[in-house]
Amino acid sequence: MKVFHLSAECYPVAKVGGLADVVGALPKYQNLAGIQASVVLPYYNRKFVQESEFEIVFEGSTRLGRKRYDFQIQKETTDKLGFPLYLIYVPGLLDRPEVYSYPDEREQFIMFQLAFLDWITWSQQKPDLIHCHDHHVGLIPFLLQHSALYKRLAKTPTVFTIHNGQYHGAFGYDKFDYLPEVNMTYAGLLDWAGGINPLASAVKCCDKFTTVSPSYLEELSYNSNGLEYLFYLERAKGLGIINGIDTEVWNPQTDPMLPAHIDAQKPDTGKLNNKAALCERFGLPLDKPLVSFIGRLVVEKGADLIPEAISRSLAEHAGQVSFLILGAGDTVTEEALQALHTIKNADCYKTYIGYNEQLAHQIYAGSDFLLMPSRVEPCGLNQLYALRYGTVPMVRRTGGLKDTVLDFGDEGGYGICFNQASVDDICSSISRAITLYQNREHLDLLRKRMMALNFSWNQSAQQYINLYESLKPII
Question: What is the pTM of this model?
Fold first, then answer.
């Protein structure tokens, strides 16, 4: 079975969030299971591309509005990521260093989709399935079915995965002429709330849509930024498949980014050595429980709650807990976190504003607890990395966090869970973490239990393969 994955991100080529981690791992595991899975991305002028060898496998041109653009399909020559990687290069449009935030972002992603379809059509390829990830490629299912240009591919099954339903990629009908000629009888399939909504269109037109956790599939029907009724109507087409992690990249026993490796059977020594290196780097006390946060500093992640929660916890538990923050995002939250360095007991608090992949690995390995007070978390990967590295996740029960973390107070549990995205709930969880840390025998038991869990892509990849196989009769 030949499958193309279309995405705006893929680790390590271009990463902004968890979308990149999924697209960088799922196809690799599918190939290991016998599926011919490839990834197609926009061209990004970034380190991975600059340091890798590519060959041009196709050249063409396509129209976007009143302008015609030349494009190239470039293939990475060694398949070193574990799958064929194709980049779509368009001079002046898809040739930039950043993934998002350009003023002509809509034009970029429309061109990406059109160039892909033109390439597949003109090169006479016949994929068995096209797997689209998030709104950036949400027009593909509609165009396959309702544009005469691609009628040869009209029966190709499509799977659409929603990594974050809060972002739709919507734009106005003033950009309708960017699309190729379509059957106007079906133009309503593009529409939601008076505009063209790629995410809504994909849900309407794809053969199956998936979410990155079962709980998130349920949540979309009451929290999807205006698409709640659509998800209610289309719920029979949906399937929740929990994300996995790449256990080769995230392996505490071999990870080259760590000062010391961690034995899953005897984690204490490795955890302590990593914590010692982390505390030495940031000047934090080694003998206190270390609570960390890694991620985007945005409301969606509950990051705006963290400054007050840390301030209150440092006052209530002076000398009993320390904190480390790694992330970037909302300027107000960044400034509030920086301002905490001036408060009392600030010697137990440090921040790193920005992102550093190696430091992230070291924080997962060296922390005692990882805080995730998310308001919205479709799946979450950070808690899975934490579990893999013997760090207790402290999570709000939502989306994938609810599906993957059991409270240590419940039978077989291993994490700290709370119900509300609030300062009170965060502080209460921090108090529980301090108490748990003081019971070293129990903490050691939880670490071994966490590190024995299997959240690899093997099982999830097979679920996607089973889904693909169920669509075969449509071909």
Answer: 0.91
